[in-house]
Amino acid sequence: MIKYIVGIDIGGSKINAVLFKNGKIFKSAKILTSKNLKELLEKLEALVRKLISGLGSKKISGIGCGVAGVLDLQKGVILNAPNLKFLNNLNIKKWLQEQFRREVKIDNDARSFLRAEYMFGAGRGYKNLIGITFGTGIGGGMFINDKIIYGANDSAGELGHMIISKRKDLELLIVKQARKLRFSKMATKKFGQNLGIGFANVINILDPEVIIIGGGAAKTVKKFLPEIKIEAAKFIISPKSRKNVKILVGKLGEDAGAIGAAALFLE
């Protein structure tokens, strides 16, 4: 019997969850992210119970959970969630195991997004990929030679925190400018410039075949791709990279992170 997998994506603005089976979404649900720990855990438990209602626990092979932050993957602890500080030091793996008595695997939300696109979406057929998610913050993930990169401390891929200008990181600059896009031509110009510089840094360091963008603000970023590419080209050191690297929008939409979390059980 092929069992279901629960996939959860805890983001700064919303929590998406899917019931996954045979490489497809059987059922999905979402809620807004609460602003305190007690309420978030109560609503998360209710969300998952609603998702699996009528199935029985024996039909659930495991729960995968993606979280926006830096994690201790072995212990299951959220070490630093920049946009959800109240989650810091929570053992989300242990909590989910206690509530649902199933095996739990966790990962960063941006790596989960990229895993989903690599296996089922825009990243299929590529070996060297970068994923960048744009939402409440900016996250990143990396596949190099068909292998996802975690780093020595499980924190590889924090692309939003690369320093771009005057000790300000990409996340701070982009989120700040995004709020001004409707009102300022200067903010619009800077938005494209800063993203172009960020993309050039990623390309120079990791030499990917493709960069895949996703997250709630991906549509906004997509509008600036011409400007981003022009700016990035000024700083990309390799002529081959300048010509060959593709920038694509993810195909799986808002469920990508939850799909990628479920896919932790398919690796």
List keywords for this structure.
267 residues; Nucleotidyltransferase, domain 5; 2 domains; five-stranded mixed beta sheet
How many structurally independent domains? Answer: 2
Which structural class do you get from the secondary structure elements? alpha/beta
CATH-scheme architecture of the largest domain: 2-Layer Sandwich
Helix content: 25-40%
Characterize the overall form: globular
Number-wise, the strands total 14
Strand order of the largest sheet: 3-2-1-4-7
CATH class of the largest domain: Alpha Beta
Poorly predicted ranges (pLDDT <50, ≥5 residues)? none
Structural summary, described in words:
This protein has 267 residues and is of the alpha/beta class. It folds into two domains: 4-109 and 255-265, Nucleotidyltransferase, domain 5, CATH 3.30.420.40; 122-250, 2-Layer Sandwich (Nucleotidyltransferase, domain 5), CATH 3.30.420. It is 36% helix and 27% strand. It is built from nine helices and 14 strands. It has helices at 37-52, 92-100, 109-120, 170-178, 185-206, 218-223, 225-233, 239-244, 256-262; strands at residues 4-10, 14-21, 24-32, 60-67, 70-72, 77-80, 104-108, 129-134, 138-144, 147-148, 163-165, 168-169, 210-214, 246-249. A five-stranded mixed sheet has the order 3-2-1-4-7. It has a five-stranded mixed sheet with strand order 10-9-8-13-14, with helices on both faces. β5 and β6 form a beta hairpin. The longest helix has 22 residues, at 185-206. The protein is globular, with a radius of gyration of 18 Å. It starts with a strand and ends in a 5-residue tail after the last helix.
